[in-house]
Amino acid sequence: MEGLKLTNAELLVYIHPSKSGNKLKAICRELSSLLFQYDEIFDGVLLAFDVTVKSKGAKILAGLNPYFGVKVEASLLLFNPKPNSLVEGKIVKISPETIHVIVLGFSAAVVTDIDIREEFKYRMRNGEDCFVSSSHKRHVLKVGTMLRLQVESFDEEVMHIAGSLLPANTGCVKWLEKQSEEALHMDRLVLICTLFFT
Amino acid sequence: MGASEVLTDPSSLYDVGNGEYSDTYTMLTVRNALASVQNGESERYEELVQSMQIIKGADHAVWADLVTILNALSGSVACIDIIHHRKLLSSVFGMSLWDLKPHVMEALVGLLISLAATSGKYLDSCLNMLIGHFVPPRWVIDRLSQRRVIDQKTDVLSQVHGAILKISLLVPLAPSRLLPMLAQQMPKINKKDNVVVMYVENLFKLESSPIGQVGSSMLFMMVMERLRDLDLEIDWDDILQDDSSRGMFDMELEDTMNEGEEVGLFWNLMYQNTSGGNVVFESLDKLMVISFDHLESCNLDGRLDQVFEKLFGAFENFILNTYKSKVSQFLMFYACSLDPENCGVKFASKLMDIFLSSNKPRPTRQVSLSPLCSNVSYSLHNTLVLMTTWLMSAIAYLASYLARGKFLPITYVATMLKRLVDECADYCGACNDDIRPEAHQIFYSGCQAIMYVLCFRMRSILNVPLFRSQLIPLESILMHRLNPLMVCLPSVVAEFLKQAKAGGMFVVSDAFIFDDLLESELSRAFGGPERLDTFFPFDSCLLKSSNSYISPNFIYWSMVRPTYEEDDDDEEDAEIIVNGDEESDEEEEEGDLDYSMNKMSITPKHSFKNKMERDGLLKMPSMIRPSISPQSF
């Protein structure tokens, strides 16, 4: 899945003196307050981090509350889906006009009917809403399906993705991977046959 | 009529009363109207906006049209633009579910869910609009006695909560945006009505829903803060001091329950003496009651243990250091009474942990005052003061809780007492030469806590040899040069010594002089400006309905059996020579309360305003003054 990146950063974390007994816990608490929020400096939504305290000393800030700054090295997992990148998520709701998806368990993504390619038709099967491909009957999108979609836009404030199923390489992840495996297998067979007959 | 002709004929756009047009067709029509604005043709759009206006007394066909349009808009959310369709959005967000019939309500809620889930731009507006329904409009509040209106309230709130939940399922981060909005929209204290109670009912409903799994802490914080605010709004000291029938207040609440007319008079006096009328009292009482009910439902659902952690966090934040609150803290008491083995034990343990925390300032610790770091020193000094009052408050809560919790087994109380005794004994071994009460506030708090609990539990503790033996170090603590018997609150010390003597607890060889005047000053000195020496937070709950929840699990002073009360025969075996003076022998002949000011009196020495009040205290002392030794619990 695109949109995820692992990056290293050198940070200076300021801690209240009352937390000096357990610096690591205080540092983790500070960084945890940034989780699942878009940060301009990191250029992405912080999903996870791992920290190492580098310095033994810390500079105390002058002022009424003498916070002290601890230098840390952190590995940061960031999420920033750019337009036209591909992301994957689980379908949670289908209606004739929309497909609602949850990406990585926290980001809401929506594909509206104008962004669903003509191939997919809305159907009600066994009381369940779904979109079925008219060209490939086994290509079905229903609640619980892992969906690959193309990012149209990403609202950083609410972490909302507007997605598209127009490109041919979007759809049910399982079906797409099976298709690509079969295609690869066919390619290999063709190659073998070509080599055999030449 | 062909489809294209219909699309261009404005008069037929929204006429679906006869069911001729399908939902799909209406949706196409609506989408065309929305798109037309961007093409510079706003006529259809204006018509669409116009059709959203609710006219009072409209007939069934109009409502049906509105439903169709709302459903069509739900399916066309992607076509709505936040700038071009500002009027339409304003119209949608300006609607109120309270004005709508049930089927229209459903359609509007469907649109809100669609708006919130399909585009992040509308999420906050949708959530705000839904939260705005937590407090009904005035015309609903005024008619809440009518069955029809009650049913409507149930329907509306059911739709609102259902919508919030559905939005949260589709937009996982919605709860994190919802919670700050809930805090912002929380009604302020209003002396005219109790809308706060209605709002909090909805908060508890959210807490019980899946949203509570992520938002429980914050929700309890909001409730606890509001409880505290209401509690502080009431001038309790004013009520308790100004009452002319002082004698009645001298008795704890339980004693008034069996006295017919006096019960009603008591509550009337309480409610009339408030500066803001009785609305604040009623609001606080109702808020406490719905909080108790919620805790009970959490217990029935088997999740009180998890909820308790969040509740304690809120208590620590808002109540622990609020010394003027008289009622709010009973939320913790009630939670503990519902689940004594888990929550009951946890509460005491957490308070004990605060008291024993490693950050506690020790008497040997010095704070250096470098002129270059004056700000640092000032800040550290303030931190030290705050920490001290924090610890003293925790120990006061622990003492009051161990004394009053009927549901606490005596084995547990004894264990806690042993820890307190051991801690105080350690302190005695390590303390410096400074004998000012202000320098040893935490120590005196600990000693007073031990004595206070023993005033209630003396008989039960002394009856078990193991528990009795665990209190052996107490003798040396009380006879230490820091002299806690002189410094701690006189009424507590007096009662404790009386019972200790009657129970044969220990023998003290040194003479003890009980000087009334010095006691008040010394206890005030250790209590500090907040008067933590007279802080007994779990004295009787003073609210009528709330007290009915608390009283079955509450040890009233009258329920306690003193060690000296019935066993006249045992007095001959008493080995206590606490005072070491001759007058104490005369006291042994009396089994009743002794109000001599120079003896170990059970009456409080402080807060005497005049002689009449002092005489009034000849009866059993009131809330903060234990006067009878404990029954076996």
TrEMBL record, chain A:
Q: What are the annotated GO cellular component locations? A: DNA-directed RNA polymerase complex; nucleus
Task: Tell me which InterPro entries the record gives.
Answer: RNA_pol_Rpb7-like_N_sf, Rpb7-like
In terms of domain of life, where is this protein from?
Answer: Eukaryota
Q: What does this protein do?
A: DNA-dependent RNA polymerase which catalyzes the transcription of DNA into RNA using the four ribonucleoside triphosphates as substrates.
Q: Which residues form a coiled coil?
A: none
Location comes to: Nucleus
Record protein name field: DNA-directed RNA polymerase subunit
Q: Which Gene3D superfamilies match?
A: RNA polymerase Rpb7-like, N-terminal domain (3.30.1490.120)
Keywords per UniProt: DNA-directed RNA polymerase, Nucleus, Transcription
Q: Which GO terms describe its biological process?
A: DNA-templated transcription initiation
Chief localisation class: nucleus
Automatic annotation (TrEMBL), chain B:
| Pfam (any one) | RRN3
Give the start-end ranges of region Disordered.
577-597
Residue spans with biased composition (Acidic residues)?
577-593
Q: Which domain of life is it from?
A: Eukaryota
Q: Which GO terms describe its biological process?
A: transcription initiation at RNA polymerase I promoter
Which Gene Ontology MF annotations are present?
RNA polymerase I general transcription initiation factor activity
For this chain, the family text in UniProt reads: Belongs to the RRN3 family.
Listed name of the protein: RNA polymerase I-specific transcription initiation factor RRN3
Species the sequence originates in = Brassica campestris (Field mustard)
